[in-house]
Amino acid sequence: VQLVQSGGGSVQAGGSLRLSCAASGYTYSSYYMGWFRQAPGKERERVTITDIDGSTSYADSVKGRFTISQDNAKNTLYLQMNSLKPEDSAMYYCAADSRRDRLYVGYPNYWGQGTQVTVSS
Predict the structure, then answer these.
(1) Which tens digits make up the pLDDT trace of 107-121?
(2) SS3 at position 9
C-alpha cells in the first residue's frame, strides 16, 4: 500500500490550497481514508475522515472551510482548504485503513509522506 501526497505550500491568510493523495496497492474504495495534521509542539489532530459509504466528518476547527473528496477512478483523495488561517499551518498527512476505528483514533495502518502547509498572517 502506498499513499503519495502532493500539493500544499505557503499561502496568505484567507487563501486556498488543495492537497492530493494518490493511493495504490489496495482496493481503494474498500478503505476508510482521511487527513490528519500536526503542528510543531502539538499533538496530531484528525482533520477529516471519509467513510466507505461516502459520509464525512470534520474537526470543528475546519468545518465550513475544508472539504474532503475523492476520485475513485483515479484512486485519489483530496483536501480542499479555503479561508486558511495561520493556525492551520502544519504538516498534513493522508491516511488509510480497512478499519474505521483505527482511522478514527489516529492509528491507521497507512500514511502518506506528509506535506507542509504554511499560512502567513
Answers:
(1) 999 999 999 999 999
(2) strand
Residue 18 CA to residue 11 CA, distance in Å, equals 11
Per-residue 3-state assignment (H helix, E strand, C coil) for 31-91: CEEEEEEECCCCCCEEEEEECCCCCEEECCCCCCCEEEEEECCCCEEEEEECCCCHHHCEE
pLDDT greater than 90 at residue 80: yes
Phi then psi for residue 103, to 5 deg, are: -70, -45
Phi-psi category of 92—alpha, beta or left, where left has phi over 0 and alpha has psi -120 to 50? beta
Query: Cβ distance 20 to 35 under 8 Å?
Result: no
The CA distance from 16 to 75, in Å, is 23
Distance (Å, rounded) from C-alpha 1 to C-alpha 30?
13
